[in-house]
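Hi, here's the filled form for the chain we discussed.

Project: internal
Contact: R.S.
Residues: 198
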Amino acid sequence: MSAKTDLEEIYQLLLRWIKQYTGADLGQEIRKGTPLRASKALIELTSGYILDEKEVLGKVFEEKGSDLVYETVEFYSLCEHHLLPFYGKIHIAYIPSKSVVGLSKLAKLVEMYSRRLQIQERLTNQVADALWFNEDLRPKAVFVMVEGKHLCMMMRGIKKERTVTITTATRGLPDKVEKFEEKVLRIIKREKKHDKKD
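And the returned structure, exactly as it came back:
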């Protein structure tokens, strides 16, 4: 049996349980169409497992003139504890040594790790480590900050809608890291002011 067929059966069982437990009158379209759509969605939302960071980051380009590369990427992921979404922004910065990766590769790296069952702390470290340990890139320092909103806290449990969780990961030599972090945080602050104006 395929993974999609297995998932369809699980979703059909879930719908039967909902009907039995709540007495809800689930329409025919929900009973017939939802298991297939939901299984396709879950397969897509966990598709990051079949990729690896070396493949995603791909070729590097020689570039000696830049002292900082910075990018902000939106992300959407699934919490591994409740299978509910969490989403937000990932701020990525690194100091190149002799090479840089294409800017689209950073977005693809975020996509790969966020399309897995995740916790925010692990996601933050995975993105940082993928850059720091890349043998072709060899950056002098890496800084990653993730700002996440978790539906497991917003729509269930404590139900705190305005909660934002911030996690950071820094890689690099101590003499490089402190000033580097300060510089990146200033960039993030300016970026947020600009977003508010827009």
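Let me know if anything looks off before we file it.
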